[in-house]
Amino acid sequence: MQVSIIIPTYNEKENIESLVTQLLTLPTRVHIIVVDDNSPDGTGEIAERLAVENAGRVRVIRRPGKLGLGTAYIAGFKEALAERADLVFSMDADFSHNPRYVPDIVDKINQGYDLVIGSRYMQGGGSTQTLDRKVISWGAYPITV
What is the pLDDT of residue 40? Predict the structure, then answer.
């Protein structure tokens, strides 16, 4: 099963190398697609180096400017589908999604689940985000009725 993980980035130089390294050392083999929106802090260059060092497992899509999260995911999903991914994850570069859960999610899919969603808002969930990031995330969290 080919597992692809899409990571949109903008100014994530502090996180991208550690995140990619953690994902590549998981017991589940993953392919990483970094979609960088021309980060002025050098995130794209770090991602490119990681792609060279991990040829075939890390791919970088460099975009000319800050085009937005939604279109970054679209670009990443198009790439994953073109590479014939069987399973696609979306993951933030700021560690608000813990890489350690990837194998558990893949296991659930292998057990026959059609969809698995990880959420920091469920019982037992959590986040190491700063308070300001938590407030922004909570404000953007969809409310269902």
Answer: 97
Q: Which CATH number is correct for 3-140, 3.30.1330.10, 3.20.20.30, 1.10.10.10, 3.90.550.10?
A: 3.90.550.10
Contact 5, 102 (CB under 8 A): yes
The identity of residue 60, as a single letter, is V
In contact, 4 and 89? CB cutoff 8 Å: yes
Q: Does the pLDDT of residue 89 top 70, yes or no?
A: yes
Q: Are 34 and 60 in contact (CB under 8 A)?
A: yes
Within 10 angstroms of residue 106's Cβ, the number of other Cβ atoms is 21
Each residue's pLDDT tens digit, 119-144: 767 766 655 556 665 565 555 544 44
**Please, which residues have CB within 8 angstroms of residue 77's CB and are 6 or more apart in sequence?**
6, 88
- 3-state secondary structure at position 12: coil
